[in-house]
Amino acid sequence: MNIRFEQVSKQFSNHMAISDLNFTIQDGEFVCLLGPSGCGKTTTLMMLAGLYQPTKGNIYFGDQVINHLEPKDRNIGMVFQSYALYPHMTVRDNIAFPLKQQKVPKKIRYGRAEKTARLVRLENYLDRKPSQLSGGQQQRVALARALVKEPNLLLLDEPMSNLDARLKIEMRDELRQLQKQLKITTIMVTHDQEEAMAMADRIAILDRGEIQQFDTPEQLFAYPKNVFVARFLGNPPMNFLDAEIIHELDGMIVHGEGYHFYLQKQLHIPNKTKITLGIRPHDLQVVSERRGIFSAVVTNIEHLGREKLLSATMGEQPIRFFVSNDQKIKYGDRIYLSPNLEAIHIFSKETGENLLWSREVSYEQVEGKTGLI
Amino acid sequence: MDIGSNVTPAPKMKSPTLLRKSHRKIIISYIILTFLSLPLFFMYLWLFLSSISSEMVAGIIPKQITFENWRFLWENVEVGSRQLPSIWLATWNTLLLAGGLTIIEVIISVMAGYALSRMEFPGRTFFLRSVILLHAFPSVALLIAVFYVLDTLGLIDTLWGVMLVKAALQIPMSTYIIKGFFDDVPWDVEWSALIDGCNRIKAWYQVVIPLVKPGIAAISIFSFLAGWSEFLLLYTFIFDDQNITLATYLQKIIGDFQMVDYGLLTAAGLFYMLPVIFFFIFTQKSLMQMNMGGNKRV
């Protein structure tokens, strides 16, 4: 079942939670809605669940507009952040509850509940009450309850946020496998970028009620559409430096405080455009003074096991990068860095759009008359 | 106090000094509490003793044990020249009143409490505030007005009339209490029920109501006890001896104060109180769960 948002907006009494959302989710896809808190991702999920109704626009399940369809008629399963188990029922009754509402005879519904419980390895806990289970087990109950009626759509609202780190990684795998095995279209809300990158086929990054970019994890990481996406994805985050583009006879120069280098690509942007230069920590290398583009003073060293994460300052601006363990660098050393010029990102200072990513775009649009798509 | 033992890293045994100190605290509180509860205890003791003795020495020591005072259990007593109706009729009427009151009150306040806690409707805040105001309103001030209303409705001198009036006076408070319980039920659980295929009403009684059971227990107990101990409304609105309850029965024993039979009065009083005491002992756990923090979303 395809899911399509068409110009969907949601207004709460005092603010606009979602504005003009447009996207399509393919059948069987695992999509993450990722964004900081208050970005509208949970609102989007609630509209899919039918707990909120869009103020404007249409949501389609397949060809059918479902804006005003009751949650119970949507054939969806949902796992809440708090799991929302029914504390007065046993695990068996919890899982069988959706079937009971469909008036499935007792014997059949308990049979199906047990089968689903086996799927999430809960078969030994069927007679317990939710309060007698660990957090991970409770989450599995919630998952089984969502899956038991074989929904067309599975909604997950930050399902892992209450689990400890190790269990989280385990559950990620499990959930992902289960989803592929059952081929259920799944939409997960999360604020944890790692989780989203690990699990999703595609990620929609939301900010202030708008989709910033909707793409595969690889694409998002390699070609962030704007500063927000670039900043949000990647850990440690991308380094951002203020600079300016200067046109020269033999090419374009990126000119910043205490550094400059030739740009390898040709950009259609005016002379002296203010830009934000983005470089991922992995794309910086410590080099000799002669070959260095940035000069910085080391302010902190973190040992991560396989490598070291260094923080340094260039004048006022902080910059972070990785070095291998055998490089002897001390606190306070002056070092010289060279970026991988293939992997740098150039964002418009004014609009935050990635200028390399949309390099086909003409001058006028970059200047913000129409804005980017 | 031995401070050293407090900071030693080995926690294998609690310092005996500390232990003894906490013990001492408990003992002192028990002594104070015992001392303060003694008058109450003697009150009950006196009530019991005087109900089974014909005369008391020094006001508290029974001289002779007798069951004469309990004669109301097997015969209709006479006070002055009047014969009182059977105590069993009064007991039955009291049960009827308290039970009916409980049923009316619980049904209405559970529904009202849910609406106030969970639904958006114009005037909700105003309604909630006026509920508190209604509770604080002195019901005595309403007696005469209510008399006219009951009279017009033909409910004067009936237990039904008193039941309705009492329910009206009680519902604000129990609504407020049960609203607090509904406030504590997470939205997620209710939403979850909606997604799992319930409509709002089904979700309400299959998922939400079971979660506020302690609250329902609490308001049931409260309203039952309130009905059991009601006196003023009965005294004002009921004249027929057929509608006598235990409270008015006691009042009739006192009669005109000239020649009160204290033995009979204490025995009947004890009879009236016993169910309440047992009830309280068995239900105090539910009462203690009560959450008076019903002031969310005011």
UniProtKB/TrEMBL annotation, chain A:
The keyword Ligase does not apply. InterPro entries: AAA+_ATPase (IPR003593), ABC_transporter-like_ATP-bd (IPR003439), ABC_transporter-like_CS (IPR017871), ABC_transpr_MalK-like (IPR015855), ABC_transpr_MalK/UgpC-like (IPR047641), Mo/tungstate-bd_C_term_dom (IPR008995), NA-bd_OB-fold (IPR012340), P-loop_NTPase (IPR027417). It holds the Pfam family ABC_tran. Keywords: ATP-binding, Nucleotide-binding, Transport. GO terms for molecular function: ABC-type transporter activity; ATP binding; ATP hydrolysis activity. This is ABC transporter ATP-binding protein. One of its GO terms (cellular component) is ATP-binding cassette (ABC) transporter complex, substrate-binding subunit-containing. Gene3D superfamilies: 2.40.50.100, Nucleic acid-binding proteins, P-loop containing nucleotide triphosphate hydrolases. Residues 3-233 form the ABC transporter domain. GO terms for biological process: carbohydrate transport. PROSITE patterns: ABC_TRANSPORTER_1, ABC_TRANSPORTER_2.
TrEMBL record, chain B:
Keywords: Cell membrane, Membrane, Sugar transport, Transmembrane, Transmembrane helix, Transport. InterPro entries: BP-dep_ABC_trans_perm, MetI-like, MetI-like_sf. Pfam families: BPD_transp_1. It comes from Fervidibacillus halotolerans. The chain crosses the membrane at residues 27-49, 95-114, 126-150, 216-238, 259-282. One of its GO terms (cellular component) is plasma membrane. Belongs to the binding-protein-dependent transport system permease family. MalFG subfamily. The keyword Transport applies. This is Carbohydrate ABC transporter permease. One of its GO terms (biological process) is maltodextrin transmembrane transport. SUPFAM superfamilies: MetI-like (SSF161098). Residues 91-283 form the ABC transmembrane type-1 domain.
